[in-house]
Amino acid sequence: MSARTSSSERPPARLASEALAGATIAAVGVPLGIGYAEIAGLPPEMGLYAALLPVVAYALLGGARRIVVGPDAGLAALLGATVLPLAEGDPRRAIELASLTALVAGAALLVVRAFRGGIVAELVSLPVLTGYLAAVGLTVLVSQLGALLGISVDADSFVEELRSLLESLGDANPASVAVGGAALVAMLGLRRILPRLPAAFPVAVVGGGVVWALDLEEHGVALVGDVPPGLPALSLPSFDGADLVAVLPGALAIALLAFVDTALMGRAFGARTDETPDTNRDALGLGVAHAATAMTVGLPVSASGARSALAAAAGVQSRLAALFSVAAMGAVLVTLTDVVSQLPLPVVAAIVIAVVIPLVDMRAFRRIWQGRRSELLVALAAVAGALIAGLLWGVLVAVALSLLDALRRAATPPDAVVGRVEGRRDWPDVRAARDASTPPGVLVYRFDGVLFFANAERFQRRVAALALKEGERPDWLVLDASGIVDVDYTAAQMLRRLASNMREQGVRLVVADLTEPARERLRASGVEDALEPGSIFPTVDDAVDAFARTPARSSEEER
Q1: DSSP β-ladder status, 442-447 and 415-418
Q2: Are the beta carbons of 32 and 352 closer than 8 angstroms?
Q3: Are 543 and 513 in contact (CB under 8 A)?
Q4: What is the DSSP letter of 488?
Q5: 543 CB contacts (<8 Å, ≥6 apart)?
Q6: 398 contacts 386 by C-beta, under 8 angstroms
């Protein structure tokens, strides 16, 4: 009886937990949404509208049930970089272009879903993403310092904005500095002392109360200003072909960043509960979410670290918390916009700065340095590219660097001369196992990676240097192909030439432990025909033992 009662009480208790988590997410989302709209240079309500229908769309269609989407600092900065130069100071046109950008980003994500292109999320490596997010953090931090200090900064790039900010420090408003500085200290202090507390909401409430009680608006502290009451009307942006072409690069960059960010965060949160998110469903959920953003005049959305962390801390088990957060945000827009309009901009800036500071993750840079130093250079190049060329081009630089770094590593995979060790079944690198050896007259070379056009010439030079060395030329060179998973046409033709050249020099090329896909490629490309008969063996041991049984070798042992 008690077990039945306990079971019946679980759903209401869980529902209450999800509802509380949803209300907390909405409370934190108010100052963050306004701050992100400020980053984009767009009206504050757009950051709040993004927490409505787009969240519903992803909650119903997205691939990770513990992820809550919302506006994001990086996406907001990208949106501003895309639409503000095109709007040329016209607020209404900026809003129209922002909606169009979201619509095009959504269409791009739906195309990814239609072609099941979830692999797109893997085009950006973690070092490059680390560097790009650090650049986003620095860009947003500098952009919000003006609001925190009460300084008006007008610049089109990170470098110009930083220079303008430094030159205007003498014009800082003391009341804004005091309010913003106190809010920033409170945010960072609460994060350290009470890491599970959603600090943005109490800091916004207390900061707003202090500014109201001391009438600091009269002393130059800027407020958010008018926020239209009520829910957004549904509409689609009007545009022409020129507008579509103009926003296309920014929209594609936003789609890529939202997709990558959501996929990575989905994996991170899913790892805690053995959930494997479906990236193709992510593309669907984000695509529809961006269409909803366009129809409700909101900001672009992606997985929100702050909102998702709140949901995880509350023990959220389903998508209900996200839906409850939508209901709570709708209630705010219907009943509390007068209160929201009184939020001090220095406090909002402080909250945003505290949120983006972790994006400059020095520990991640240190781990990259310890893991592979060349990848740290790639990460730093991503930082420089985004800061110097701008966030819009920074995304493209990040993708290009990821692909180039992957190609570089594929072009220089691990290889080694290997040998046999008594009592071991594997053939270790002779540099690591000093007692590893091979019979005189045979050399075993292992290559670990795809053999293709980018490394074919390097492979040929390496093998030629080993096999055709004067005074140490082996009779057989055994290629341990256990790590070669594929061979393209360029590499296959190289192998044909190599086998022929080595045969002319008195060295026989044999292949051992060839994977079936690679063997099919070699057979179709005519490489098997270029090798001497019987030159392909199941294992390296078989090849070396066969060499020991050759007539020349047997007669030499008899002598």
Answers
A1: antiparallel
A2: yes
A3: no
A4: -
A5: 444, 476, 478, 510, 512, 537
A6: yes
The closest alpha carbon to 19, from 327, 340, 460, belongs to 327
**Amino acid (one-letter) located at 70:** G
Contact 452, 487 (CB under 8 A): yes
Say which DSSP state 116 is in.
T
Q: What is the pLDDT of residues 47-72, one digit of tens each?
A: 999 999 999 999 999 887 778 889 98
CA distance 149 to 168: 10
DSSP state of 234: P
Structure tokens at 463: 């093998």
Name residue, tokens 């980053």: 39
Q: Give, to the nearest 10 degrees, the angle between helix 345-356 and helix 2-40.
A: 110
Q: What is the DSSP string of 83-107?
A: HHHHHTT-HHHHHHHHHHHHHHHHH
Alpha helix stretches (DSSP H) within 224-277: 241-270
Q: Which residues pair with 444 in a beta bridge?
A: 418, 478
What's the token pair of residue 53?
């229908």
For residues 383 and 190, what is the distance between their CA atoms, to the nearest angstrom?
29
Q: Are 525 and 494 in contact (CB under 8 A)?
A: no
Q: Is 229 exposed, middle or buried (0-12, 13-18, 19+ CB in 10 A)?
A: middle
Please tell me the pTM assigned to this model: 0.75
Please write the tens of the pLDDT for every residue from 264-291. Answer: 777 766 655 556 677 888 899 999 999 9
Handedness of CA 131, 137, 140, 146 (dihedral sign): negative
SS3 480: strand
Structure tokens given for 453 = 């056009």
Cβ-contact 281, 69 below 8 angstroms: no
Dist. CA 138–CA 158, nearest whole Å: 9
Q: How far is CA 308 from the centre of its chain?
A: 16
Please list the helix, strand and coil fractions of the chain in percent, rounded to the nearest 5, in that order.
Answer: 65, 5, 30
